[in-house]
Design brief:
This protein has one helix spanning 49-61, and strands at residues 3-13, 19-31, 37-43, 64-68, 77-83, 89-93. By secondary structure, the chain is mainly beta. A six-stranded antiparallel β-barrel has the order 1-2-3-6-5-4.
Length: 108
């Protein structure tokens, strides 16, 4: 596969058992001659205020998501997501990411 254009799903996993949120995206994936994977996309549907708040929270906490492409029940590739001001998403494969994040919440 050199290029894929279609829909995918970003999944934010708290651990191996709990997916906190999923976002459908329109995506274009390219693979270069040495196998480097890159993608750009946009949310398939505009996020309402509650969804935007959740998205912003997860992005601030840790911008690593799993991406599921058509035919996949669960995301298999971990990507780092960067969102531009115009809403364009840039996804870069993150094979070195070890999924160990330490987060502290102030609930007061």
């Amino acid at each position: 596969m050199d290029r894929f254009v279609g829909q995918g799903r970003l999944e934010w996993w708290a651990n191996q058992s709990i997916c906190l949120e999923m976002y459908d995206i329109d995506i274009t994936v390219t693979v270069d001659a040495v196998g480097k994977w890159r993608a750009t996309g946009r949310h398939a549907n505009a996020l309402d205020a509650t969804q935007r708040e959740g998205w912003d929270f997860l992005m601030e906490m840790d911008p690593h998501f799993s991406i599921a492409l058509p035919g996949e029940d669960r995301g298999g590739i971990t990507v780092r997501v960067v969102e531009a001001e115009d809403g364009t998403l840039t996804l870069v494969e993150a094979p070195e990411w070890d999924s160990s994040v330490s987060v502290t919440f102030d609930l007061t």
